[in-house]
Fold this protein.
Amino acid sequence: MASRQWCEGHSTPVLCVGASGGPEGLLASGSEEGEVTVWNQEGAVLASLRLPSGDDVTSAVFSPVTPGLLYVSHGEMVSVLDPRSLKGAVEELQGAGEEEINSLALNEMGSALAVADDSGAVRVLELPGGKVNRTLRRHTNIVSSVAFRPLRPNNLVSAGLDMQVMLWNLQKTRPLWTLNLQEVAEEEEDHQQKAGQLFNPPLAHCVSVATCGNVLACAAENGRVHLMRVGSGSRLDQQGSIKAHSQGTSQAHFLSFLPHPYWLATGGNDGMVALWDLSQNPVVTVEDKGKPQAVPAHRRRPKASAKAKLQSQAKPKSQQAKEEEEVEEGSSADQSPGTEEALKSGPKLRFSHGDKVNWVCPTLLRGEPSLVVADQSPNLSVYSLAGL
């Protein structure tokens, strides 16, 4: 699939991309060694900045209510920038993380910033000012991703390399529920009865929430995207998964600008990018099939802790080749046990990006649905989704 290249914005590999929902439609990207670049919708560089710390920029999010605020994480810090005048930090939130920060998320009111870091803690900062309002400690390893639930500014989802996904109410310091992806994966293996298959732990890399606020997706190292539906009382009503990539799934992001909220973009270490229509997935359609049976949330710790990041979890090449043969374009997506029907079609769109995917950012560019993809290079690739 053809892409447009956005070049000359970075000198090091791009690690994260964020899109503004404002009328200017700006994009921001962060890369290794502290580089931040702001782009217009045509892919022209408006401004670039190298942060004094020189630490890798791991997350970039625009304020949903204030066009002149961009939050970027680097090391244990969060810098507040003005993307329209990128001359230096407007404000520095020192010590926002206890250790290196991996993910930032803003609630819809722009009044709370969630910070996930290597210590396993999630901090919630009040805005403006950056005062720590809550510190959430239940993960037993690196917290890799965090996201607020739309329409519910006090609900937060976190996911980490302890293979746990947690839903929080910020009025409390204990999660409302915890889903242990390792237990889910073990149940799937028992169900599929694939003797001798090598097990790749489902380290959780990226979590996203659909604009309806009730459907969650979590990209995992076992190549799957785990899906969850939140029901009344914030219960975990349903869960399932799709086999998305032949190697670790690094990215999963819902699209907010297509006809329904259940379009999901994924990217993986196999260099593939895919777009999924989950509107007919049993996890999403469960409300149409009568009262769902609650899925118990697993609370016990995983049998094996994840003690390193993605790079230490590489698969043997023979296993990669085997899975690549199994997951071809248009192949069916596996549905976990506990649902009565399987998803009958694979991704609506699937193409080879050609390099390990660091970030996928769905956005509208001049009114055209697009995916902005970052990889191991200093450039960005833009793919058009026109025609969907």
About this structure: The first strand starts at residue 4 and ends at 6. Residues 290-343 have pLDDT under 50 and may be disordered. Residues 144 and 160 are 5 Å apart (CA to CA). The longest helix spans residues 181-192.
